Please model this.
Amino acid sequence: MDAFDALDSAVPTVSDEVLAQAVRRLADAVLIADAHGQIVFWNAAAERLFGWSESEAVGQRLDLIVPERLRDRHWEGWHRVMATGETKYGDSLLEVPALRRDGAPLSIAFTVSLLTEPGSGRVTRVVAVVRDDTVRWQERREMNAELTRLRADPRLAEPSS
Model:
């Protein structure tokens, strides 16, 4: 055993129990759905964000938080990911509207991780780490409206030469 082997064996590891506790306590909402879109995990932050308790959400389909007008598009993308085992949102932020329990709209931003069956690579679970993006989305919308207004103002047009 050389010095590097000794260092590798001395590095502490994190148990599955510690990882589970961390996911349950994250400030970001974490939800996990099975391959059919049924919620199988819902942490405390998801309860705060969406207003549904864990016991109410687990066992429900993701339609619980997807606005009705977007459900066809959502499920079309879902089935494509299940069939291909690929998503661009593993390392790219997805920003979409969502719904709270009381029907209030939200803007959420999240990434997705695909969990697969060993051997076959078949997607068995989809993990989403979600945060409320409503305030930032509204600010961006207001800024874009102001920019559009300013660009249309003839008094601010550049003088012609």
